[in-house]
Amino acid sequence: MVRGSGQKHYDVFINLEHPCKSKCNCPHSDGKRIICKHMIALYFAAYPNEAKKYYEDVVKYQKEEEQRQEELEYEVIYYVHKLKKSELEQLLLQVLFDGPV
Ligand SMILES: [Zn+2]
Questions:
Q1: pLDDT, tens digit (0-9, with 9 covering 90-100), for 36-68
Q2: How many Å lie between the centroid of ligand 1 and the Cα of residue 13?
Q3: Domain residue spans in the chain?
Q4: What is the pLDDT of residue 41?
Q5: How many other C-beta atoms are found inside a 10 Å radius of the C-beta of residue 43?
Q6: How many Å lie between the centroid of ligand 1 and the Cα of residue 58?
Q7: Which listed residue, of 6, 13, 22, 101, carries a Cα 20 to 30 Å from 66's Cα?
Q8: Which DSSP letter does residue 22 get?
Q9: Residue 41 in contact with residue 28, Cβ under 8 Å?
Q10: Are 1 and 11 contacting, i.e. CB atoms less than 8 angstroms apart?
């Protein structure tokens, strides 16, 4: 049994071998083959090490994404600094009239 965000409690069954056969009687999932947040909550409560591993994966992904974004910004700045004034004017007008490429 899992408590929802309100006061309601839902009956949750998770099938680890066939996740789509998991069941929950919340409005989002009842009668459908949908994985809902109550199933995820039950899974992570039953397997706390998996929750910890998932959290670490998310943090690692976010750091990598920030790094990629920072590298992209540096590339754009480098590219813009290499352009001649006439090329910048042409690109600016192109973006203003046609939108980003
Ligand atoms: Zn549910």
A1: 999 999 999 999 999 999 999 999 999 999 999
A2: 10
A3: 1-46, 48-101
A4: 94
A5: 18
A6: 23
A7: 101
A8: -
A9: no
A10: yes
Q: What is the mean pLDDT of the chain?
A: 94
Query: What separation in Å is there between the alpha carbon of 76 and the centre of ligand 1?
Result: 44
Distance 32 CA to ligand 1 centre (A): 10
Q: At what angle do helices 37-46 and 48-82 cross, to 10 degrees?
A: 120
Q: Give pTM, 2 decimals.
A: 0.64
pLDDT computed for residue 6 by the predictor: 86
Residue 43 alpha carbon to ligand 1 centre in Å = 12
Helices of type H across the chain = 37-46, 48-82, 85-98
pLDDT over 90 (residue 5): no
Exposure of 101 in the CB half-sphere (CA atoms within 13 A): 4
pLDDT at residue 21 in the model: 94
